[in-house]
Design brief:
heterodimer; A: mainly beta; 5-stranded mixed sheet; 38 strands; 2% helix; 41% strand; rod-shaped; B: mainly beta; 7-stranded antiparallel sheet; 6-stranded antiparallel sheet; 3 helices; 15 strands; globular
């Protein structure tokens, strides 16, 4: 074959055209257009010796290893097979045009002259994707694994959402390792659900909602993950993690029960092997705000200020004590107490207790002492003592109009301090009594 | 004490025994102060040793026994500013206070005496008072507390008696005299600093004078620092103790 230079269009003629072509000739011209194009050929002039079955002179067109036709004669002749206005189109980018002549051109002893042919060819775009659209039986190996896009002179492939085109430009693989869901509710499903999921998946679906909220999962029907009767999820499996803690591994056809994850962070890991025909899974997730348990006092002396009917994340409560009591946490005395509802639904501090204030041992009085006027030895809130001086040698210093009983009475106050109504924290003083000898001089003799 | 009697336990629970330049007396005020005569600490006509310590004993009538009870250390000595050590014949301002290092615990044998609050009749002629001390008794130093009951003497009588003795000693308004030349009852050396105690109408014993000076013992009158005139000074020193 004589190749023509690769052009997007051109002419092919018989030798010597438009003069009569020579006898005893056999030439083949190969028309080639760029890859991605096909060849379209049309005869503009056609004048060959007519014969039955184009036995003597003819033009044969072939492409794609197939003969598209054998032509001779001219328009209107009773013999032959002229191409007329027919368009010949190759499937590939090549077309062969074979021109054959025999030893003579006579008709009833008269030499005849035939001009030959003039054909025009042009490159027309090949829709490579057309075959993709045909049935599977015809194209067992489509050009693209998912989607085919034709353009003038070529085509390219793309993938359905959730897949990524691989370097071969043909195949699509799932990229589902970083799927993130942040809406307060939504649906998550395996790829192609409810159609069978792809093989070799390593999917990670992350649900992240605001702190203080918990995620609920509700699986829908159908639920179908490759399973084995004896071995737990050997092929494909769906793992669920709440706050990094594994809360289940699922496969089979039994839909998991509704899950309350008690977490604002859930990860669904879905692994599949290279085979299988299960339809996958789908779930509906919802969120609700986390509530802390209602605070309860541990004793009757603790007061929760402004008690609410319910507490949720970031809510807090303050506790105080009834008068004469103080907050204690273990052995530690607290000046104040606030507990905050945490994002996991727990209080950040345990409820304290209220312990009665203890004024401790009363200060000892120099040259005197004290007696309990309430229960002996009890020094807690509202306990009372009475200071006294060692009479007759000492006497309590009193204010004008005040008695020793008044001035010596001290009460354990709500502040945990022994206090006298008049003197406050200051304890009484015992002053020496002067000029009162126990055994004064007595003169009997007169 | 001349012409007196041995005291019994608890008769004079304010009585102190001091010792610096010899035996002296004193009286407990409150539970931390000893009232005494200035000349027991800074005697006249005698070199004073400022570094020498003073011993104070309290709470008994037997010298040996109260010494066994232990000395009461003195924190501070306060001499009345009018006292003149170098004027041998002038016992003006013969009063001093000793502040003890530690308060004492009062009891039947250790009690303070009161101070006079006003003139009343304490300094009138014939008002009887008691003077106690561990001083000389009939030329002999006693080991047992003794006391004598003395009347306050008439001022003019004492002045006349002093003139009769050819004495040039000062008998000021800050002093009073007590005793009876005929009775041979008197305080004597070693009693100085002790108090002239009288029993008030309310039964309280009040110190009206401090044993100060005299000419001989038991031969006439004894002269005492008139405490009423120094009460303000005492209270100021004691800061209302």
């Amino acid at each position: 074959a004589t190749p023509l230079s690769q052009e997007l269009f051109g002419e092919v003629t018989s030798p010597l055209y438009p003069k009569p072509y020579p006898n005893n000739l056999e030439t083949t011209t190969m028309i080639t257009v760029p890859t991605g194009y096909r060849v379209k050929l049309v005869f503009w002039q056609f004048d060959l010796e007519p014969s039955e079955g184009c036995f003597y002179d003819y033009v044969k067109i072939s492409a794609d290893k197939k003969t598209l036709g054998r032509f001779c004669g001219q328009l209107g002749s009773p013999l032959g097979n002229p191409p007329g206005k027919r368009e010949f189109v190759s499937e590939g980018n090549k077309m062969l045009l074979t021109f054959h002549t025999d030893f003579s051109n006579e008709e009833n002893g008269t030499v005849m002259f035939y001009k030959g042919f003039l054909a025009y060819y042009q490159a027309v775009d090949l829709d490579e994707c057309a075959s993709q659209r045909n049935t599977v039986e015809e194209n067992p190996q489509p050009l693209c694994q998912h989607l085919c896009h034709n353009y003038v002179g070529g085509y390219f492939c793309s993938c359905r959402p959730g897949y990524e085109l691989q370097k071969d430009g043909y195949s699509c693989q799932v990229e589902c390792s970083r799927e993130l869901y942040t809406e307060p509710s939504g649906y998550v499903s395996s790829l192609e659900y409810p159609q069978p999921y792809p093989p070799d998946l390593r999917c990670n679906y992350s649900i992240r909602v605001e702190r203080g909220h918990t995620i609920h999962l509700k699986f829908l029907e159908p639920f179908e993950i490759d399973d084995h009767q004896q071995v737990h999820c050997p092929y494909d499996q769906l793992q669920i993690y709440a706050n990094g803690r594994n809360i289940g591994e699922f496969c089979g056809k039994q839909r998991p029960t509704d899950l309350d994850t008690s977490s604002n962070s859930v990860d669904l890991l879905f692994f599949t092997d290279e085979s299988g025909d299960s339809r996958g899974w789908k779930l509906h997730y919802t969120t609700s705000i986390i509530k802390c348990p209602q605070p309860k006092t541990l004793d009757e002396f603790t007061i929760i200020q402004n008690l609410q009917s319910q507490y949720q994340f970031r809510d807090y409560f303050i506790t105080t004590c009834k008068q004469g009591y103080q907050l204690v946490e273990g052995d530690q005395v607290l000046l104040s107490f606030t507990a905050v509802c945490q994002d996991d639904g727990t209080w950040h501090r345990a409820m304290p207790r209220c312990k009665i204030k203890d004024c401790g041992q009363p200060r000892s009085l120099r040259n005197g002492g004290f007696n309990y006027t309430t229960t002996k030895g009890v020094t807690t809130y509202q306990a009372r003592i009475q200071y006294y001086c060692n009479e007759p040698y000492y006497k309590m210093k009193t204010r004008d109009g005040s008695s020793e009983a008044e001035q010596g009475t001290y009460t354990c106050t709500a502040q945990g301090i022994w206090k006298n109504e008049q003197e406050g924290e200051k304890i009484p003083r015992c002053l020496p009594v002067c000029g009162k000898p126990v055994h004064p001089v007595v003169e009997k003799q007169r | 004490i001349i012409g007196g009697k041995a005291a019994k336990e608890g008769n004079f629970p304010w009585q102190a025994l001091s010792n610096k330049y010899g035996r002296g007396g004193g009286a407990l005020l409150g539970d931390r102060w000893i009232l005494t005569a200035a000349h027991t600490l800074y005697p006249k006509e005698q070199d004073s040793h400022t570094n020498s310590s003073i011993d104070v004993f309290l709470g008994g009538i037997i010298v040996e026994e109260i010494e066994k009870l232990g000395n009461h250390p003195v924190r501070r000595v306060s001499i009345h500013p009018s006292y003149r050590k170098d004027e041998a014949h002038n016992f003006e301002g013969d009063i001093a206070l000793l502040e003890l290092e530690h308060s004492v615990t009062l009891g039947p044998n250790l009690l303070p005496i009161c101070l006079p609050e006003n003139e009343t009749t304490f300094y009138e002629k014939g008002h009887m008072g008691y003077v106690s001390g561990f001083g000389i008794t009939e030329n002999k130093l006693t080991d047992h507390l003794r006391y004598v009951r003395l009347p306050v003497a008439e001022r003019t009588a004492c002045e006349r008696w002093l003139q009769g003795q050819n004495s040039n000693n000062v008998f000021s308004e800050n002093m009073f005299c007590a005793g009876d030349p005929k009775a041979k009852h008197d305080s004597c050396q070693g009693d100085s600093g002790g108090v002239f105690a009288v029993r008030g109408a309310d039964g309280r014993w009040v110190a009206t004078g401090i044993v100060s000076w005299g000419i001989g013992c038991g031969q006439g009158y004894g002269f005492y620092t008139k405490l009423l005139n120094y009460v303000d000074w005492i209270k100021k020193e004691m800061e209302e103790e």
